[in-house]
Design brief:
This protein is an all-alpha fold. It is about 95% helix and about 0% strand. The radius of gyration is 66 Å and the shape is rod-shaped.
């Protein structure tokens, strides 16, 4: 056993030659048959990784572009919203102003109509009062004349006076 353990640590020349020869043959066989496919696989993997990195970079740039487009669209939407809100406020203010103007016009018309009605009623009341006063005056005058004219001599004096007044007015 000692020899066996010694042969492993100090190999014989034949073992070294055969091991080296087998190793070199294995390298030649691997180079001939496996080296190109392995290198092609490594190169393909490298190109795949490079393509993936380029795709990822392109996707990142696309995302940044989309984000910028989205921000621009959002800014435009905010601008349109603000413009619509401004137009709505302006329309509301215009409608309120028109409604106030129309209400003032209607109120002025109603006030003028009321004043005209009051003036007409006042004129009618004054005319009615005048007519009543005239009617009462005629009644009072009639009663006074009836009392005065009951005396015969007074009747003749009144007729003479009225005739004299008429003569003076004609001249």
């Amino acid at each position: 056993m000692i020899l066996a353990s010694n042969s492993l640590t100090t190999p014989e020349l034949g073992t070294i030659v055969w091991t080296t020869l087998i190793f070199l043959m294995l390298l030649v066989i691997l180079r001939a048959f496996a080296w190109k496919p392995i290198m092609q696989a490594i190169k393909a993997r490298e190109e795949s990784i490079k393509g993936s990195l380029e795709s990822a970079e392109e996707a990142r740039r696309e995302m940044e572009r989309l984000k910028a487009d989205n921000e621009a669209i959002m800014a435009e939407a905010r601008s349109e919203r603000d413009e619509l809100m401004k137009e709505a406020r302006d329309a509301r203010d215009k409608m309120i102003a028109e409604a106030k103007k129309q209400a003032k016009t209607e109120a002025d018309k109603m006030i003028q109509k009321a004043r005209t009605g009051i003036e007409r009623e006042k004129t009618m009341a004054i005319n009615d009062i005048r007519n009543q006063i005239a009617s009462l005056s005629v009644e009072i005058a009639e009663k006074i004349l009836n009392e005065k004219l009951k005396e015969g001599n007074e009747q003749n004096k009144l007729i003479a006076k009225l005739l004299d007044d008429m003569d003076l007015k004609e001249n």
